[in-house]
Write a structure and sequence with these properties.
6-stranded parallel β-sheet, single chain, alpha/beta, globular
Length: about 375
Amino acid sequence: MWDEAVTRYDFGPSHPMDPVRLALTMGLVRAFGLDRAMEVRAAPAAGDSTLRLVHREDYVAAVREVSGDPGVADGSYGLGTLDDPAFHGMHEASALIAGQSVAGAEALWSGDAEHAVNFAGGLHHAMPGGAAGFCVYNDASLAIARLLELGAERVAYVDVDVHHGDGVQAAFWDDPRVLTISMHEHPRTLFPQTGWPEETGGPAAEGSAVNIALPAGTGDEGWLRAFHGVVPELLADFRPQVLVTQHGADTHFEDPLAHLAVSLDAQRAVQESCHRLAHEYADGRWLALGGGGYAVVDVVPRSWTHLVAIAAHRPVDPESAVPASWRDEVYARTRQLAPARMTDGRTPSWRDWDAGYDPADRTDQAVLATRRAVFPLRGMLT
């Protein structure tokens, strides 16, 4: 899913969410010929009836108002804040990104496509009644809500952004049809200060919200061990009809806004695992979204190009040289030097959870806390 106009989602020159990251990602996708390996589609912006599947009518009206006149934004509804400054065309750009995710979900459900990617999406902090954390409309929640509207009975959402997927969790907190799993930096040290393992869902959906809160400094081995120590077993139990995943690249050790130490190579390994899990448990129906990521030249375009390549069944060898044409584009747009290869030079590995628990290891403590909080609620052994 791609429309050049998604780059109009632009909070201004001093904001960390620089839309150049989207343009550079699509440039790298094209440089590897991936736009010829899968169909590139553009979808219309989400209309009001779609937005209201998740967002309150008064909030959508407020976004429309500040979109036409950013000067009226006063912080109400989270609009006009440092995180979410108002800008001309805010509603149109936000609804367009949402429209791409919703259309991708529709294509999966109709059988028109097996996989869909919207790396401009993954805006997981937006709440039903307000903007938050650089997110105006929650495209992930809207895509899931549309799947439910179309008749889906089980949708799984897996979020590996460094920040807790709080908006998606909130949207489906009391809905047992949706399993939300978020693996993120511990709320003690990072926005939005939610995502504790004890957050497990509402009264009608206990065990449907899953949170893996990892200590600051977690690197490849711990990050991968945590993912594989929780996610596959839950998906095997839940048996989703569609798998929606969010791949924020801000877990990377170069990201300026967080404190994990994950490599591009580990991010790619999780992308491959999500692809495999979609085929194993969701008949291949996989909607993959972008998310955070503020190393906008060195990390984001490479990470999400790997994601597109995996979805296209044309994976890019991590040792591949970055095409010279793209390096030229990077310099022309940013006056920065581009990375030379599609790897950080790591060979990620992890120890399976079945190999045993180390009570002195903080990552193991985090994984066990999640399993103890959620697995019994689902009738599973910890």
